Amino acid sequence: MVFKKIGILGGMGPETSANFYYKIIHYCQKKYQATQDTDFPPMVIYSLPLFGFDELGIVNKKLVLQQLLQGIEILEKAGCDFIVIPCNTVHYFINEMRIKSTIPIISIMEETVKKIKLDNHNIVGLLASETTLKLKLYQKILDGNNIKCLTPINEDYQFITDLILEIMSGEVKGKTKREVISIIKKMVMKSTDAVILGCTEIPLAITQKDVNIKVYDTLQILAESAVCYAIKD
Question: How far apart are CA 182 and CA 39, in angstroms?
Answer without folding.
Answer: 41
